[in-house]
Amino acid sequence: MTNAEKQTQLAELYTRRPMPISLPDNPTLTQKYADRVSEMPEDGFSLIPQICYLPYIYNSAALEASALVRKSNLMRGHVFVAPSHSLYETLTGNVIPAYGTYNTQVAAQPGSIILGYRYWEYDYPAATFKTPSNIMIRVSDACTGLDIAHDYISALTFAERVGVGLNNDLPMSFVTSPRVIAGSGQLNVEIQNTTNAVLACQFMIFVAEPITLVESTGYGSTQGFAK
Amino acid sequence: MPITPPNLYQTAVDNYTRRFQCAVDSGMFKVSGGCPSFQSADAPWLVKPPQAVDFRHQASLPVSSFTAGVDTLVVSFVSRLGYDGVINMLVNQFADQGFIEGSGSILWRVKVGFRWVENFSAIDTTIGEPDNPYIFGTGGIQFRERTVVAMYANIPDTSLFQAASLVTCGLAGWQYRLEPYSRVYA
Question: Which of A6, A71, A214, B165 fits as disulfide partner to B9, beta carbons 3.0 to 4.6 Å?
């Protein structure tokens, strides 16, 4: 297949893509906001040929599922990390001791939505990144106790996979569909070291948070937000 | 400057979030634990349900079976298919003289699946008796169906003890049948 043919096929694939949204349940609201479709922001992910080229693989599908959140105008991206800084989290610098567990809780805005994860592991103190080994992670909703996965899962699931198709160069492992954090927006994170050696790591949770709008309270100031 | 109105996508996200929150508020996930308002006092890992099945596994190994500094399996079992479980009784003993509590000359470890259980990954004292195991006050160590639950021991220096001395490990508790919504999958 020549490059021109590839480009033609690519263009066809792109133009055939369905509208990546599900319409709201409320028909009144649908009607009310239908005229704002032209104001929708461009979604940069949809423009990447690497992704458009194979629209039916997992990452493309997952990106499509989260397009709804990315294009919503009152959500913003936020990355939570656990531990906050691996090298200084403890006095000794050894984040998770042998056979040990690291526990933490991240607090997002209520109504936040999880989009994906990424796990990094490296040697301490050289900070040389390496392939995750024998690490189990559990993320659960602090309010309801719902697990994100069935049980503890291997950190390899969230690790970067260099050179394996579209996993390469992507910043995170996507969830199958955007997942709402219930209640107070807190997540329990447990990282378990199953080896007999210390471990330095960082686990990232990619979240979309609702933006809290600030209204003017009528103090006469012209600064900040006004009604 | 007017407040930015929600666009079409934001409206859909709001509906999506609202639907999920409605399911949470309805008490659908109430058995799952979590914050106090969602905790259930009769969760199956706290109170033994009528259909639960007891288990009690105990075994001993002589010191001669240990290699110095190597985690050695003493007792293990596989949980039933369709049953989650909880360990709420524990025994680890050394049936001879020479062991000093807390010295680290013997370490006991509880393992569930691939992971070492938090707070039970390096026990350096004896706990409970074979005929009178230590009972957890509340909760316990939960595990899923079809999971290998095991207890290991590690003797950094085997020459400290007589070869025939026995290291004992025991796990007991119950397994409960999965009920609708008792555990919700991602």
Answer: A71
CB nearest B115 (choices: A34, A149, A192) = A192
Contact call for B33 and A21, based on CB within 8 A: no
How far is residue B84 CA from its own chain's centroid? 11
H-type alpha helices, A17-165:
27-34, 49-53, 58-71
Please report where in the chains the tokens 């709402």 appear, as a residue: A180
Give the integer Cα–Cα distance in Å for A166 and A64.
Answer: 14
Coil, strand or helix: which one is A157? Answer: helix
In this structure, are residues A212 and A73 in contact, taking their beta carbons and an 8 Å threshold? no
Interface ipTM > 0.85: no
Tell me the C-alpha distance between B177 and A124, whole Å. 44
Tell me the per-residue pLDDT of B128-165, one tens digit each, with 9 for 90 and over: 988 888 998 777 898 988 899 999 999 999 999 999 99
SS (H, E, C) A30-71: HHHHHCCHHHCCCCHHHHCHHHHHCCCCHHHHHHHHHHHHHH
Q: Does B25 touch chain A (CB under 8 A)?
A: no
Q: Which of B7, B9, B26 to mutate to test the interface with A (most CBs of A within 10 A)?
A: B9
Cβ atoms of residues B75 and B57 within 8 Å: yes
Q: Which residues of A103-117 are buried (b: 16+ CB within 10 A; e: fewer)?
A: ebebebbbbbbbbbb
Cis peptide before A27 (omega within 30 of 0): no
**Which residues neighbour B153 within 8 Å (Cβ) at sequence distance 6 or greater?**
B61, B66, B71, B72, B74, B92, B106, B107, B108, B109, B167, B169
